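CHAIN AND CONFORMATION:
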Amino acid sequence: MDDTNWTDRPPDTKSQPALTLKRTGPTKTVGICLSNKPIGTLVHFWRGRTRPCLGPLLCEACHDGQTRRWKGYLALYNPDERKVWIHEFTENAYGGIGEALESFTSLRGHWIRFERTKPVSNAPVVATVSPSKSPSDTIPEDPDIKQVLNRIWDLEDQLTTAPETSPTEVKELRPALYPRGNGQPRAVK
């Protein structure tokens, strides 16, 4: 199977800047929210990285009995550094975001502070949302988070071109859907 993506020209890197996926560090992460509201999905931490759960038919991690957790994603912006990133957060941190969504119609333009309850890298994270003095039309556009995550998880082509499968064919399809490392395809035998 040839997974190489051959083209006749370099990729258009100007269309969308490369965005990184960040999690809250050992203390806190603060940024202006570019998203109107969060998006989230069930994921597994499996084989050394976070991977989306593709459901019982296609999900090798589910098949291995791995637990799923919900993770949410927002686009954040640091105006001092002029950097945009996708921030991953847990269900626990959603509490503060959910409360803010009851008060505001959109998170766009508001400051969001993700902070650990203790200064260690695995302590629970809480989120607080506070209004920003910057008008929302002076901050960058909201990137397409789903597209960025599909690229990070190397699912861009596989999910849109995956053929309809029966349960007996799923075992053959699974290796192609789960890459190794940071988007590096795993060898299929």
About this structure: Residues 20-156+165-177 form one domain.
